[in-house]
Design brief:
The structure holds 2 protein chains of 2 kinds. Chain A is an all-alpha fold. Chain A contains 21 helices and 2 strands. In chain A, a hairpin with a 4-residue loop joins strand 1 and strand 2. Chain B is mostly helical. Chain B contains 7 helices and no strands. In chain B, helix 1 runs parallel beside helix 5, helix 4 runs antiparallel to helix 5 and helix 6 runs antiparallel to helix 7. Classes of the chains: A mainly alpha, B mainly alpha. The interface between A and B is large, with 55 and 48 residues.
Chain lengths: ~525, ~230
């Protein structure tokens, strides 16, 4: 089953792209992409359910399906499915139907590259896959071909390509470290690196990790390497922004976490964890500052992505059963929630014909359903209960308060409050502030179609469910990953017991937990 | 246990080649004419190719001959040619408003080399069997990275940015040949291919930039802030 799921995830988008190239017709491309994304989502679900704890290798071990990779692919597949539905409505509003086949070819290829990256068993090939995601998505960001879009695309490819060469250098350093143990030629895989780590020189491991963290951190959007992110997220079409934010950033986080596991095996805990915590905190700080003073509606969402990737980094940095579980749960919730937010932003942008929040007024009176969904999403993304992000942020904070990152947890809590106030204040103005100036009233309003509203429901409902009920199977899956990342050194009885108690404690917190 | 055993003569050959490519990076940093960048970049790639072949011969890694050949074809010939075509189409000959004078960037570049040497020496201190060539390779690798970033930071022309990226990659490639000559060939092939794709993408984007923004200078890209 697992093998079939993997072949579906890689094969179907590839076949769809070929068909679209052979028969470039708008409606065909649209439907084909929709069907592909639906099947990919089911395949990803099957994959997560059937992946054993130690992982399975395919194609002569070039591909690895392990619980962590499968989880990230599931997050990506969810976003791909939701944004494919949304595209059916949104891309029609651009009035460029003849360019739709090109859009869907690139869109499916973008999804394909994101699915492939976490499957790569060789760190070097993983680097190439991440680089490919950049190349493909640049053209999606620049798709609307306005000067701003081209500018965003250019900045995106320059900053990310330059940043990611650091990760390549880091990869070489890791390989070099391995040659002292394994001989000058060996097959570098994540597992081989983890096994060789205890014998590697610590200074090489640290140098390599620093380079990798900054390199992939550029792609993840950790501050201060985040500068491409608000531009690219705000100028691409809304479904592309959702994919960038909900799927791509997680795929780049995979690299950081896998190298973190290598360092943990070498008994290097303090330094890499503190570094992740530091980058996470700085990201939260930068995001908070820019969210409070933001004017562009999609840039607001983009800075919120910086914030949430910072929180995920904090989760992995805090480590332990709570930190890792919280970070992985946060990935899923963020993928759902950020898709919802970008869909809402796209609808508002198209309805009012502007990206500026100053000119969006009385949104709720014009479009009650879409507005209500978007507002619920805004409440959710600031981490308010009863939505999923509350559960994951709460768990990460718990990890912070019980571990090495007490100061960061306190700062995180304070910044989350600032972001809550700043973010919802923008929504208060857009929804309830009366339109005074004439240009605010003169906006031409176009109503979103059913295609634009349906994916918002599909994102919000699971988000609510995950806020109230954390499935036990998911928790166990996270603990499997946690054991891989933290390494055997810390896996003593007390930690395991702590984890089990934590699971019980958490479920008592969630009202609808199964007995 | 390391794949690098060379006599003093061979060691000095590697050192000369590594230092020559670092010097060419400085030529790129100090020059204002886009054509000079391209020639320096091509020459640098050829030197790296010679280095690969030399290491392949001395250390008995026959696959490095293939890498050397591909380096000459792709990095030494095809990429400079593609970039030259783009430059001709744009009718831009030189960097018009550099942020720093070439002399100042040269000084900064020299400071970068000193910093790299310090890092490399410290790293080598903790390693078993660290020879002078390894320190040199690490120094050149790190300083070409810093010089590449410097070029990205102080230049505005789109082509200079692309060349800055290529210098970043050349530095890594050079270091890889000396530090880990046994690295599986698959990786190096894929990276070469990846470079080619990136340059083609840049070509397309440069055309968009000309069409929509009307300029290929990053100074004009200032609509998106905050």
């Amino acid at each position: 089953m697992n093998g079939i799921a993997v072949s579906c995830l890689i094969g179907l988008p590839a076949i769809a792209i070929l068909i679209m190239l052979a028969a470039p017709r708008p409606v065909l491309a649209e439907r084909l992409n929709l069907v592909t994304s639906g099947v990919c989502l089911s395949a990803a679900l099957v994959m997560v359910a059937t992946t054993p704890a130690i992982g399975i290798g395919y194609l002569g071990r070039y591909l690895i399906v392990d619980p962590f990779g499968a989880w990230v692919i599931l997050c990506a597949a969810i976003v791909y499915f939701l944004s494919s539905i949304f595209s059916c409505g949104y891309m029609r509003m651009l009035d460029e139907d003849q360019r739709l086949p090109r859009f869907y070819q690139l869109f499916a290829m973008f999804a394909l590259t994101i699915f492939v990256a976490p499957l790569m068993n060789n760190p070097g090939l993983y680097w190439i896959a991440i680089e490919m995601t950049t190349v493909v998505s640049t053209f999606l960001v620049a798709f609307e071909q306005a000067p701003e879009a081209i500018e965003a695309g250019w900045k995106y490819i320059i900053i990310v390509s330059a940043g990611i060469t650091l990760a390549l250098l880091g990869t070489v350093i890791f390989y070099w470290g391995g040659t002292f143990i394994l001989g000058s030629t060996y097959d570098m895989t994540w597992r081989v690196l983890r096994h060789a780590a205890p014998g590697m020189s610590h200074s090489l491991l640290v140098l390599g990790f620093l380079l990798v963290l900054v390199g992939y951190g550029t792609k993840v959007g950790l501050a201060p390497m985040h500068t491409w992110l608000p531009d690219a997220h705000s100028e691409g079409p809304a479904p592309v922004s959702a994919m960038l934010s909900g799927a791509l950033l997680n795929a780049a986080m995979v690299g950081i976490v896998r190298y973190l596991a290598v360092l943990h095996r070498a008994n290097l805990f303090d330094l890499p964890d503190q570094l992740l915590i530091l980058f996470g905190t700085v990201s939260l700080l930068v995001a908070a500052l820019f969210i409070v003073r933001q004017r562009g509606v999609k840039r607001l969402m983009a800075y919120s992505s910086v914030e949430h990737m910072g929180i995920v980094a904090l989760g992995f940095g805090f480590g332990g059963p709570f930190g890792v579980a919280g970070a992985m749960y946060h990935m899923l919730n963020h993928s759902l929630n950020k898709s919802l937010m970008f869909f809402g932003a796209g609808n508002a942008m198209r309805s009012f014909g502007t990206k500026s929040m100053m000119r969006i007024r009385d949104y709720a009176q014009h479009f009650p359903v879409g507005a209500a969904l978007w507002l619920a999403g805004a409440v959710a993304i600031t981490g308010a209960p009863p939505f999923g992000l509350f559960a994951s942020e709460f768990t990460i904070l718990r990890a912070g308060f019980s571990g090495i990152g007490l100061w960061a947890a306190v700062v995180m809590l304070a910044l989350l409050i600032v972001i809550f106030i700043g973010f919802l204040n923008h929504f208060r103005i857009m929804y309830y502030e009366p339109a005074n100036r004439p240009e605010q009233k003169a906006a031409v309003l176009t109503a979103p179609s059913r295609w634009n509203i349906a994916p918002m429901w599909l994102a919000l409902v699971p988000l609510l469910v995950f806020g109230l009920w954390w499935p036990r199977a998911m928790w166990q899956d996270f603990q499997t990953v946690e054991r891989t990342i933290q390494g055997p050194a810390v896996l003593h009885a007390a930690v395991v017991e702590h984890a089990v108690n934590g699971a019980v404690a958490f479920r008592t917190l969630a009202p609808r937990a199964p007995s | 246990m390391h794949g690098f055993h060379a006599s003093p003569v061979e060691t000095s050959l590697f050192s000369v080649l590594a230092i020559a490519s670092l010097l060419l990076a400085f030529v790129m940093l100090g020059s204002r004419w886009l054509k000079h960048y391209l020639i320096a970049f091509a020459a640098e790639s050829w030197i790296i190719a010679i280095l690969s072949a030399a290491i392949g011969y001395i250390d008995h890694y026959p696959e490095l001959y293939v890498i050397a050949l591909l380096t000459i074809v792709f990095r030494g010939t095809l990429l400079p040619y593609l970039l030259l075509r783009i430059t001709r189409r744009l009718t831009i000959e030189r960097e018009l408003e550099p942020l720093l004078r070439p002399s100042s960037s040269l000084v900064l570049g020299a400071a970068g080399v000193v910093f790299s040497l310090m890092v490399a020496a410290r790293m080598a201190y903790t390693l078993p069997a660290a020879t002078e060539v390894i320190i040199l390779a690490l120094t050149v690798m790190l300083s070409m990275k810093l010089i590449g970033y410097l070029m990205l930071a102080v230049r505005h022309e789109a082509i200079s940015h692309v060349l800055g990226l290529l210098v970043l990659e050349n530095g890594i490639f050079l270091g890889t040949q000396i530090l880990v000559p046994g690295m599986p060939m698959l990786l190096e092939l894929v990276i070469l291919f990846d470079l080619l794709i990136i340059v083609v993408c840049f070509g397309v984007l440069v055309r968009y930039l000309m069409g929509q923004v009307g300029s290929t200078s990053a100074l004009q890209l200032r609509r998106l802030v905050g």
